[in-house]
Amino acid sequence: MSGDADAVVRMARLGTLHAELEARGALEPLLDTLVPDPVYEFHPLRRRFRGGAATRAFYTQFNERFLPLRERFALVSEWVNASSVAQEYDIALRVDGKVEEFRVLGILCGDGERLSGERVYASERFVRLMTGALFETLEPF
To answer: Which domain range does residue 37 map to?
Structure first.
């Protein structure tokens, strides 16, 4: 296997592991898949957060407040190259007794053996539900 093919396989494994840990709400192992100073961007809103402390705060509230809203989710498609994994999902959330459905694209960015963050393409409604009170702290870029 060539070096580039090896990198694609590593990236695919890392993306799968990260997604599985996120779906289970496994905080510490999930954080271990990331570099110390990750960057999370939300498009088309052009907002972001960065750094280990912000990432921990995001995933803590994600596990406590967002995951319980999840009614169902399904991976629609996935694309992998040596430096990133793009994952498209259909996600249904139960909010105030009603189910809301979303299509979301997340691009996990690689940095060697870990991820340097993610670019999330989703509606403002979805990002607000996913980030909770942290939405107001997202910085424009």
So the answer is: 3-136
Rounded to an integer, what is the distance from CA 58 to the centroid of its chain? 10
End-to-end CA distance of the chain: 39
Angle at 118 between CA 112 and CA 121, to 5 degrees: 150
Half-sphere CA count of 120, side-chain side, radius 13 A: 22
Q: What is the pLDDT along the chain (141 residues), one digit of tens a residue?
A: 456 899 999 999 999 999 999 999 999 999 999 999 999 999 999 999 999 999 999 999 999 999 999 999 999 999 999 999 999 999 999 999 999 999 999 999 999 899 999 999 999 999 999 999 999 999 999
Q: Is residue 14 domain-resident?
A: yes
Is residue 36 in a domain?
yes
Number of domains making up the chain:
1
* CATH code, domain with 49: 3.10.450.50
DSSP-based three-state secondary structure for 67: helix
Structure tokens at 22: 């996120």
Contact criterion met (CB below 8 Å) for 17 and 80? no
- How far apart are the C-alpha atoms of 8 and 12, rounded to whole Å? 6
